[in-house]
Amino acid sequence: MNWFDSKRRQNFLIWEWFPRPENIRYRNAISAMDDTIYKIIRQRRESGEDPGDLLSMMMAARDEDDGSGMSDQQLRDEIATLMLAGHETTANALSWTWMLLAQNPDAEVKLHEELQQVLQGRSPTIEDLPQLRYASAVITESMRLYPPVSLVGREAVEDVEVGDYFIPEGCVVMLSQWVMHHSPKYFDAADAFQPERWLGDLEKQLPRGVYFPFGDGPRICIGKGFALMEAVLILATVAQQYQMKLVPEHKIIPQPSITLRPEHGIQVTLNRR
Ligand code: HEM
Fold it and tell me: What is the DSSP letter of 155?
C-alpha cells in the first residue's frame, strides 16, 4: 500500500528496480508475505487436514479439462488476492464507519435503537440481516463518503466513443467512486453522513455508475454479498457492546492508495455500553 502510494505521489514515473528505500521495503514486504503464505500451504499439504475452509476448498478444486489441482504458486496468488481484496477493503469500510458514527451522534443513537429493538441483547445472526435496515444503511452511506476502493480503471480493447469523447484502443480510463459518490448532482447534502437516505429506494433510482463501491460490469467484486453481510454483522456485534469516541488530537487523513485507508489509522477510546 505504501509503495503504491509513493508511486502515485511520483505520478507513476519511478523505476521499480531502482534500489530506493520504498522499493526495497516493498520487495521485503512481498517476501515476508510469501514466506507466511507458503508456510500455511506447506503445513496444510503435510497435515492433509480438511477443515472445510477456503484454502482446503481451493486445494481440492480440480481443473475440469485435465483434472489437475492448483500449484503452490496459484494457491499463493489466490490467497494474496483474498487478503488484499477481501480483508483490507472490509476493514477499511468498518474503520471509516466507526469514524463517521463517532462524528455523527444522532446516527449512532438511531443505530443503537435498532440494535436494541431487533436483537434485544443477543448476538446478531444472518437471519437478523433483513431487520437490520439502519445498520445496513450506515454501511452503504459510509462506503458512499469513504469508498474503500476510490478508483477503478478500464482499458479500451478497441477505439470507442463515449459521449463527446474519443477513447483510442489501449487507453486506460479511470472511474472514481470518490468523485461520483460526492456529486451534488445526485446526492442532497452530498458531504453529509445521512444513512436515512438509503432507507427508501434511492439505490434503485440512481443511474448506473453513480454509486459503485464494488465496481460494475463483468468484473464487479465477487465478494460483494459476503462483504455486505460481514460488515453489517461485525458493525452490529461491536456497536452493541461498545461506543467509540475519537481521540481529539489525532488527525485522520484519507490516503488514496490501492484502497482508501486512513494514513495514520483512526485512534479511538472504547466505552463499554
Ligand atoms: C467493502 C468491501 C469490498 C469492497 C468495497 C470491494 C470493492 C471491489 C472493487 C471496486 C473491485 C473491482 C471491481 C471492478 O473493477 O469493477 C473488486 C474486485 C474484487 N473483489 Fe472486492 N470488495 C470488497 C470485498 C471483497 C471481499 C470480501 C472479497 C472476497 C472474499 C473480494 C474479492 C474481490 C475479487 C477477487 C475481485 C476481483 C474480481 C475480478 O476481477 O473479477 N472483495 N472489489
Answer: E
Q: Are 92 and 217 in the same domain?
A: yes
Which residues, 6+ apart, have CB-to-CB distance to 71 below 8 Å?
Answer: none
Q: Compute the distance from residue 164 Cα to the ligand 1 centre, in Å.
A: 30
pLDDT digits (tens, 9 = 90+) for 90-128: 999 999 999 999 999 999 999 999 999 999 999 999 999
Cα 82 to middle of ligand 1, angstroms: 9
Question: Domain check: are 146 and 189 in the same one?
Answer: yes
From atom 36 of ligand 1, which residue's Cα is the shortest distance away? 221
The pocket around ligand 1, CB under 6 angstroms, is made up of 81-82, 85-86, 89-90, 93, 148-149, 152, 213-217, 219-223, 226-227, 231
Q: Are 220 and 116 in contact (CB under 8 A)?
A: no
The rounded distance, in Å, linking the Cα atoms of 45 and 15 is 38
Domain that holds residue 26: 1-70
66, 89: one domain? no
Q: Looking at the structure, do residues 38 and 143 belong to the same domain, yes or no?
A: no
